[in-house]
Amino acid sequence: MRLLRVSDQPEPYPVTLVTRNISSSGIYFLAPRILPPGTAIELEVALLDRPPGQGRVQMCTAAHIVRCDAVDMPGWFGYAASFDDFALRRDDVVPIRRCDQTGRVNKTA
Known about the structure:
Number of strands: 9
Number of domains: 1
Largest sheet: 7 strands, antiparallel
Strand order of the largest sheet: 2-1-5-6-7-4-3
């Protein structure tokens, strides 16, 4: 998972974070910085991490921080964020299937 933007400021070097939990409505992650509740963020989350071109699926999302927790890692904090909007991005090519003259699907074409 990478932090791409905080409030309206893009991260000069997107920060890689630690994902602890994810659901359809939000995410819990660890970060080495302070993000107050209500802060708008943009994240890139690898849902299926494979080599490029082999079916990698990433979720790009706008979210906002709803909770900040102390964690056992010095200098790090735990954050709950609620998704505001998201899009899925795939990097594989979906094969085109065509029907032969009998109406059967030809999966080799």
